[in-house]
Amino acid sequence: MARTTPELIAAKRDGHALSSDDIAQLIAGFVRGDVADYQMTAFAMAVFFRGMSPEETVALTLAMRDSGTVVDLSDIPARKVDKHSTGGVGDKVSLALAPMVAACGVAVPMISGRGLGHTGGTLDKLEAIPGFSVDLSIARFRELVRDVGTCMIGQTAELAPADKRLYALRDVTATVESIPLIVASILSKKLAEGIDGLVLDVKFGSGAFMKTPEQARALARNLVDVARGGGKDCVAWLTRMDRPLGRTVGNALETIEAFELLHGRGPDDLREVTLTLGASMLVMGRVAADEAVARAMLLAAVADGSAAKVARAMVAAQGGDPRAVDDPAVFPAAPLRVPFRAAATGTLLTIDTHAVGIAGVEMGAGRARTTDTIDPAVGFVFERNVGDKVSTGDAIAWVHARDEASAARAIERLTRAVGVGEGAAEEVPLVLERVG
Amino acid sequence: MARTTPELIAAKRDGHALSSDDIAQLIAGFVRGDVADYQMTAFAMAVFFRGMSPEETVALTLAMRDSGTVVDLSDIPARKVDKHSTGGVGDKVSLALAPMVAACGVAVPMISGRGLGHTGGTLDKLEAIPGFSVDLSIARFRELVRDVGTCMIGQTAELAPADKRLYALRDVTATVESIPLIVASILSKKLAEGIDGLVLDVKFGSGAFMKTPEQARALARNLVDVARGGGKDCVAWLTRMDRPLGRTVGNALETIEAFELLHGRGPDDLREVTLTLGASMLVMGRVAADEAVARAMLLAAVADGSAAKVARAMVAAQGGDPRAVDDPAVFPAAPLRVPFRAAATGTLLTIDTHAVGIAGVEMGAGRARTTDTIDPAVGFVFERNVGDKVSTGDAIAWVHARDEASAARAIERLTRAVGVGEGAAEEVPLVLERVG
Questions:
Q1: Annotated catalytic residue within B114, B118, B142, B170
Q2: CB–CB contact A173 B48 (8 Å)
Q3: Helical ranges in A66-209 per DSSP H
Q4: Which of A400, A410, B212, B283, by CA, is between 20 and 30 Å from A330?
Q5: Mind telling me how many Å the CA of B5 is from chain A's nearest CA?
Q6: Residue A45 shares a structural domain with residue A103
Q7: Would you call A81 helix, strand, or coil by DSSP?
């Protein structure tokens, strides 16, 4: 006999495992409205304290996936592999990665999010391209994945609506920070995309949700296990987020920087993370026997221009100006560029990456609330990074701002966010390890 | 600066103490609608796991008290003392206690609840008296406390509305079983009554919310400390609820049995609990120097008829037939009386008192849901109790039922609820100890 909602909440509260049927009943009831929001948040708080077994997390993920449309891409002969990052500051990897991987013969159906809080979002970066639309129908999405090899859209109301509603509630009830709820939220959407496999970039450090490698490892392990429990190939990479990735923060600046990779330019750290994730995607997509071969294929796709060609095709198909892939002048630019200068001489020891993200949000590069609007032009270009020597007066970064006042506020925040001192910065590996 | 609601929930979730201002802000926001139900239930679940300090519980209690009217009885010269029981099966103490205490010169303003689940409620028992109304205005309540010495009404919308709303949410979110939330719920209403002091009957055993003396002691300690923190005199008694109190279960049957006490009759256990609680009320009401004197006064008020006289006056003033105090024939009676007979010979070792309560609910003596209606006539009269010898075929109880089918179902439940066997029943003291 099915248990009542209070009985299910009590079972979780008391540390008993719920069955797949229990969880399916709860989520189906939530979507129908039989399970009230105030019951779902009490349940979420009980999960915060009690956790969930891998089996429970799989059941929650699948129940949320099944709350909406599950895209069927089975008529596309290529393997379908997506990438997901747990989010960070300056993380523009997807914009270069998807065309590079698609150029190598693996389809990349990518349903992404918007930025909220200190982290940016792929959709906001794409929308810095004049004309680019992320609001395509599922039918059009399927066409582009088939014909172009990749397509990048936003979460539609049809995909995992239970996740969308639950996330909105978690956001205002202090129940975001729960690994099973995070895992189910991420994977319910990804499992609804029609993919065969998923490569995860789980970040750790001051700009990441997970501050330590241990936390990131635990999240990665959970994500990989649950994705596999949901019938998908999955591996995760732990990568550092103790400083911005690449040199830029801000939507147009980041998109320009990502497209640099497609021309064989761009910063080393961004290239390395992109190649690491991309290589796993090619292996998972069964077009490369191992990661060494896969890396060579990705570099070849850049060298022969095929990656840039896919990028142009994707941008054009989604209504954007395809010259954006090659010409930074296509993007909106901020009227003001003001240097953020070092106040002391020494080594750049630390960057509070979360604070850098917040400084960007305050300028308009991100959102404090979901209803905030984005200014695509503003942001930062870093000249120095953690470990670099600086002298008083050196430009550590350039602030691209809408006006003097916002530039001044950003510089004040950046001043507090960087630590310059004696000695060497702590060595943190860019790519720490693979999980799964 | 005031913290946001998610910040307050997160603070409790992470085990940090909230200030009185934090808690007042939360409850005031809840009453205004700024704090959503789904936030309040997440908070309640966090309290379930993290508990509350005595200071926090006092703050919560006072904030909920102050969400509505606080009755002012200061123009009544007598000390005002109420009694509250944590609830059990057959607990009809208030009906005899209030007139006895009032007859001795202590005013008893009593705002009671209805039965829900396996436990009965004072209001339902009073309504078994033809014509009796528990829905009086606060103004009329004040008049009767002053003129009659006692008045028994239900919780009005004016008193502690935050508690009423929060309780309704807790009931469907598995957040009832939290000592600070229980304490604040009980005491916010009691502190709104305009009393000087409160005597608590905290029950333990199979028919009580607290199954063990240890749990009951912890609840009693909390209740006493928080009531005192709220500026009231308070003591608690731990009394057993491993069997029905008195011989009857059911609204008319229990009211008749309680009124027996006012005539010097009735079962010993019911009299003893009533005298124990009443003696504390007289001492707290400063009309008796100690409990021995107080007991003698209560017995004298029974012997000289003054307790019964107060009861008649109260019943009449609340619209009921005052002959009910003296004549059981005034009450509705069930058409059917069917014996529940012992199936074996031996000692009556245990009664699953919770199951007895549920058997009563199923017959119509109580409510499974707040919207269920009560049949005042139905219930049980026990002939034997825990520790008594029984022989196969002896009537352990009489089932007063509306029809054969409900009687048969009740007998089936009672059969499973009693344990007859060899040896002696465990000795459990009726009144275990005083707390505070």
A1: B170
A2: no
A3: 93-103, 122-126, 138-147, 161-171, 179-191
A4: A410
A5: 8
A6: no
A7: strand
Note whether A13 contacts B38, CB cutoff 8 Å: no
State which of A328, A351, A385 marks the end of a domain: A328
How many Å apart are CA A17 and CA B397, to the nearest integer?
A: 41
Q: Does A13 touch chain B (CB under 8 A)?
A: yes
Beta-bridge partner residues of B80: B107
Whether B240 sits among the annotated catalytic residues: the reply is no
Domain shared by A118 and A200, yes or no: yes
Three-state DSSP at A262 gives coil
In terms of Cα–Cα distance, which of B364, B286, B45 is closest to B173? B45
Per-residue pLDDT of chain A (436 residues; tens, 9 = 90+): 678 999 999 999 999 999 999 999 999 999 999 999 999 999 999 999 999 999 999 999 999 999 999 999 999 999 999 999 998 999 999 999 999 999 999 999 999 888 777 887 899 999 999 999 999 999 999 999 999 999 999 988 889 999 999 999 998 999 998 999 999 999 999 999 999 999 999 999 999 989 999 999 999 999 999 999 999 999 999 999 999 999 999 999 999 999 999 999 999 999 999 999 999 999 999 999 999 999 999 999 999 999 999 999 999 999 999 999 999 999 999 999 999 999 999 999 999 999 999 999 999 998 888 788 899 999 999 999 999 999 999 999 999 999 999 999 999 999 999 999 999 999 999 999 999 9
Same domain, B180 and B242: yes
DSSP state of B107: B
Task: Please check whether residue B329 touches A, CB under 8 A.
Answer: no
Q: How many angstroms away from the CA of B53 is the closest CA of chain A?
A: 19
CA atoms within 13 A on the CB side of A347: 10
Same domain as B225, residue B141: yes
What is the helix (H) or strand (E) element at residue A237, kind and residue range?
A: strand A233-240
For this structure, is B232 an active site residue? no
Choosing from A328, A361, A390, the residue where a domain stops is A328
Query: Residue B336 CB: number of other CB atoms within 10 A?
Result: 16
- Confirm if A246 and A266 have CB atoms less than 8 A apart: yes
Residue pair B181/B140 in contact by the 8 Å Cβ criterion? no
Domain count, chain B: 3
Could you tell me if residue B308 is inside a domain? yes
Residues of B in contact with A22 (CB under 8 A): none
CATH number of the domain enclosing A35: 1.20.970.10
A192 plus A280 within the same structural domain? yes
Chain B residues closer than 8 Å to A48 by CB: 13
Q: A30 touching B, CB under 8 A?
A: no
Of B189, B243, B309, B312, the catalytic one is B189
| Coil/strand/helix, residue A396 | strand
Closest in A7, A48, A169 to B38, CB measured: A169
Which residues of chain A does B45 touch, with a Cβ-Cβ cutoff of 8 Å? 13, 41-42, 45-46, 49
Q: Which domain does A191 fall in, by range?
A: 81-328
- Span B333-383, pLDDT tens digits: 999 999 999 999 999 999 999 999 999 999 999 888 878 889 999 999 999
